[in-house]
């Protein structure tokens, strides 16, 4: 693996050297590829285009990110920003690379969560859009366009992760392939109309099962906090280490979103029926609402409180998109029509 890692470092150096003038673009792309964006950006857009696609996006995002966490615990993948120092292979020639505000993630590096979740979630979006275009235009060229954009997006997200030293190229490739397979498989079975008990059991099962796995590995002498220690040691700015990039943040986000999806479908089975104009209004208001929900400051000490509030935050997300905002828009537009 040393040769693969070394080549990955030189590739990152070359990419930074050639494209440093596009630094802001790479940072925007890596934010778009953030698993969090699947819940806060892609989900509302997909839902107000197609209810089934929206539910599928949330479902696929949660399951693929959870699997990514388990894979990372099992594979112990390094990250470039700490491997450069830990490997001690660059004494004679130190690579000329920079870290960025999004570099210092604290979880293991393999496979790339950004690439894996992006590939899974956006497969749902492009396959839905491709089918829609084909049914409306019967044009193979137009219906194939979303799939071309899908490939371009995966390449761009992968390169952005290499550029900021968050991942090695092989981690991005394995993440993209795994995510694509998950997107195809999981999107075929979307839990629409399932009872609340299904989502509660699934959410709590993932949460408790993962905690038991963590405790079991710790009992076997496996130190699952090794990546956090290295991230703190080699990150060039201490403030770039954030608790919301820790593995348990991913876990609580996924479990909270799944439980929230069940609650939203319980409160309003089938969702609200809205024409296109009220849907667009609902999308705009939902996006603003989720922006403010995401910006809510959470106390980082004690960590148990942070994770509990993080869990609740993502329970709220489906309520905003599926129940609250479209319900208010429906009441307003319905009353207006009646008058």
From TrEMBL:
Organism of origin is: Champsocephalus esox (pike icefish)
Domain Phosphatidic acid phosphatase type 2/haloperoxidase residue range list: 53-187
The name this protein carries in UniProt is: Glucose-6-phosphatase
- Membrane-protein topology: Multi-pass membrane protein
The EC number(s) given in the record are 3.1.3.9
Q: Where in the cell is it found?
A: Endoplasmic reticulum membrane
Spell out the family assignment given in the record's similarity comment.
Belongs to the glucose-6-phosphatase family.
Transmembrane segments annotated in the record for this chain:
25-49, 56-76, 115-135, 147-166, 172-190, 197-217, 305-332
Q: Name one GO molecular function term.
A: glucose-6-phosphatase activity
Q: Which Pfam families match?
A: PAP2
Quick one: where is this thing mainly located? endoplasmic reticulum
Question: So, what pathway does this thing act in?
Answer: Carbohydrate biosynthesis; gluconeogenesis
Q: Enumerate the active-site residues.
A: 114 (proton donor), 167 (nucleophile)
- Top EC class for this record: hydrolase
Keywords of this entry: Endoplasmic reticulum, Gluconeogenesis, Hydrolase, Membrane, Transmembrane, Transmembrane helix
Single GO biological process annotation from the record = glucose 6-phosphate metabolic process
Amino-acid positions noted as binding substrate in the UniProt annotation, renumbered to this chain: 79, 161
* Any one GO CC term of the record: endoplasmic reticulum membrane
């Amino acid at each position: 693996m040393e040769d693969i890692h070394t080549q990955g470092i030189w590739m990152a150096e070359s990419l930074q050297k050639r494209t440093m003038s596009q630094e802001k673009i790479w940072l925007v792309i890596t934010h778009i590829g953030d698993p969090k964006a699947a819940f806060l950006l892609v989900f509302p857009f997909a839902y107000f285009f197609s209810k089934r696609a929206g539910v599928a996006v949330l479902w696929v995002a949660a399951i693929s990110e959870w699997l990514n966490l388990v894979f990372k615990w099992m594979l112990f993948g390094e990250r470039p920003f700490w491997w450069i120092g830990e490997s001690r292979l660059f004494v004679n020639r130190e690579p000329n690379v920079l870290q960025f505000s999004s570099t210092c993630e604290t979880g293991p590096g393999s496979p790339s969560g950004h690439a894996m979740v992006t590939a899974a979630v956006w497969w749902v979006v492009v396959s839905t859009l491709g089918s829609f275009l084909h049914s409306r235009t019967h044009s193979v060229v137009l219906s194939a366009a979303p799939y071309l954009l899908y490939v371009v997006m995966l390449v761009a997200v992968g390169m952005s992760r290499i550029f900021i030293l968050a991942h090695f190229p092989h981690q991005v490739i394995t993440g993209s392939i795994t995510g694509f397979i998950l997107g195809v498989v999981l999107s075929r079975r979307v839990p629409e109309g399932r009872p609340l008990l299904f989502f509660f059991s699934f959410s709590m099962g993932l949460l408790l099962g993962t905690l038991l796995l963590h405790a079991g590995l710790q009992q076997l002498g496996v130190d699952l906090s090794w990546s956090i220690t290295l991230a703190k040691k080699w990150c060039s700015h201490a403030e770039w280490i954030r608790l919301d990039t820790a593995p348990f943040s991913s876990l609580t986000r996924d479990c909270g979103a799944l439980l929230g999806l069940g609650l939203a479908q319980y409160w309003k089975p089938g969702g609200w029926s809205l024409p296109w104009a009220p849907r667009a209004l609902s999308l705009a208001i939902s996006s603003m609402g989720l922006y403010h929900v995401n910006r809510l400051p959470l106390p980082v000490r004690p960590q148990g409180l942070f994770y509990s509030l993080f869990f609740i935050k993502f329970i709220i997300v489906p309520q905003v998109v599926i129940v609250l905002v479209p319900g208010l828009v429906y009441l307003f537009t319905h009353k207006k029509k009646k008058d």
